[in-house]
Amino acid sequence: QDYTWEDHGFSLINRLYPDVGQLLDEKFQVVYNLTYNTIAMHCGVDTSMLRRAIWNYVHCVFGIRYDDYDYGEVNQLLERNLKIYIKTVACYPEKTTKQMYTQFWRHFKHSEKVHINLLLLEARMQAALLYAL
């Protein structure tokens, strides 16, 4: 059975700690929806598929998979170096190196790479909360 933040985690945490669920949900939504609609030098780009692929890949690393998501998108949108970086930061942050950071998306701005870090850390937190709840 699917156990998602939207359907189960949010309401359960609100029962345990009133108003905390709303604060966490807003935090997740702000990071998930954050975009300048740019990728590298391209403006006016819809980045929602990329953001969703990163979020779902982090959840997948922790064993959370969604039946309604095509995980083929992850392989199409995330290069190998980025997937290695995401898995290392999410699972073994102490093993993350500057070289790993520079290896993925070489032509992208640092602000875009920071956004990747925000996405993966919030997705990791949500995955941990789902397990805890």
TrEMBL record:
GO CC term (a single one): nucleus
Signal sequence annotation: none
Chain segments annotated as transmembrane: none
InterPro entries to which the protein is assigned, alphabetical: Sestrin
GO terms for biological process, alphabetical: cellular response to L-leucine; cellular response to leucine starvation; negative regulation of TORC1 signaling; positive regulation of macroautophagy; regulation of response to reactive oxygen species
GO molecular function, one term: oxidoreductase activity, acting on peroxide as acceptor
Name recorded for this polypeptide: SESN2 protein
The gene coding this protein: Sesn2_1
